[in-house]
Write a structure and sequence with these properties.
alpha+beta; 38% strand; Alpha-Beta Plaits; single chain; 30% helix; 184 residues; 5 helices
């Protein structure tokens, strides 16, 4: 049994998920995880699936390409290496960091550099930049795991200083609080 990372990219249209999942089902593959999004009309999907021992990675790729290439979708498959060393992360708490403000070059680079310096792991980033100075048109939402052993005061100060430099409003909330506030 192989564990596969399948990446699908291309112009969004209805039926992409049905096409990928249908091929994998017909090949007796099991989808374990899926993450997909639409970025400016472009579909980006990542699937982790296991294939049966008698199904090669090349066969899965061939059948997915047969399904998706006519729709001008790009497919890439990588086998997960079962022998990879597990990366251990320090004990952490989930937080959501949100910034809103004018669109400027370098915002993502500046904030991710701060996060990396403090060993904060970004688990998901959603950034929408429509340009201009309307803060509601330019939003970043980082879902992060903040290690418990870092200097929280210094970390938060550095984030707020960088937000001020870019004229951004910033919010740093524990994920549980963020979710309860934004629950519909």
């Amino acid at each position: 049994m192989s564990k596969l990372i399948i990446t699908v990219l291309g112009q969004d249209r209805p039926g992409i998920l049905a096409g990928v999942s249908g091929v994998l089902f017909r090949l007796d593959c099991n989808i374990e995880n899926v993450s997909q999004t639409i970025l400016q009309s472009q579909f980006a999907g990542i699937f982790i699936a296991t294939s049966p021992p008698d199904t090669s990675t090349q066969s899965v790729l061939y059948h997915l390409q047969e399904e998706l290439l006519p729709r001008n979708l790009y497919v890439h498959i990588t086998e997960m290496d079962g022998g990879q060393e597990e990366i251990s992360f320090p004990e952490s708490d989930p937080f959501v960091i949100t910034t809103m403000g004018p669109d400027r070059k370098g915002i993502v680079a500046a904030f991710t550099a701060i996060l990396a310096r403090h060993q904060v792991n970004v688990t998901q980033l959603h950034a929408v930049f429509k340009g201009g100075d309307d803060p509601h048109n330019n939003t970043m939402i980082y879902q992060v795991d903040i290690p418990r052993n870092i200097d929280q005061k210094s970390f938060r100060f550095e984030l707020r200083e960088k937000a001020a430099e870019f004229h951004l409003d910033i919010s740093i909330q524990h994920r549980d609080i963020f979710e309860s506030i934004h629950r519909v």
